[in-house]
Amino acid sequence: MKILAIDPGPDSSAYVSYDTETKAPVPYGFNKIPNKILLKAIEELEDPVKWPYGDVEYCAIEQVASYGMAVGAEIFETVYWSGIFAQAFGLDSVVRIPRKAVKIHLCGNMKAKDTNIRQAIIDRYGGKDKAIGTKKTGYGVLHGFSADTWSALAVAITAAETVLK
Fold first, then answer.
1. Phi, psi angle pair for 129, to nearest 5°
2. Distances (CA, A) of 76 to 16, 66, 71, 72, 83
3. pLDDT digit string (tens) for 95-135?
């Protein structure tokens, strides 16, 4: 199955296209772009969904959750965009993945931080030298990932291996 995973933000969102049909599931497209551009790309999709990197069957969006703390306007704007992306993709093909589910699935611990999640993903792809690589040794499938694209990949992996399996 092919998944478009989104880590929504108030102004820009990270996305990853993820393919579980390959021998080893791999991301095959990723970026962080302004929300309006991502929305336009989703709205222009056809049935079956045609993403710039190929067909996509599902959309997995990181679910915003409250942990009892006061939140500001950025959080409400992120929730707003999350709903817009889900509506544009088609609600029947969207799954929402809470951050807690990502932490438990990839790290087995609710106290995991972004660095722990990143390392768990790198380990899945054979360690840093193989997964990310270098100019000298050759680049791996995770070369170029940064901050929010790691989060989107974590959402894709969790969705593929738990909710959508």
1. -60, -40
2. 23, 11, 8, 7, 11
3. 999 999 999 999 999 999 999 999 999 999 999 999 999 88
Q: Is the torsion defined by CA of 66, 72, 77, 80 positive or negative?
A: positive
Contacting residues for 40 by C-beta, under 8 A, at least 6 apart: none
Sign of the CA dihedral running 89, 94, 99, 102: negative
Are 30 and 19 a contacting pair, CB within 8 Å?
no
CATH architecture of 2-99+145-163: 2-Layer Sandwich (3.30)
Domain extents in the chain: 2-99+145-163
Tokens of residue 110, six digits: 């609710």
45: DSSP letter:
-
At residue 115, what are phi and psi to the nearest 5 degrees? -65, -35
**Tens-digit pLDDT profile for residues 1-48:** 999 999 999 999 999 999 998 777 888 889 999 999 999 888 876 654
Q: Contact 93/74 with Cβ under 8 angstroms? A: no
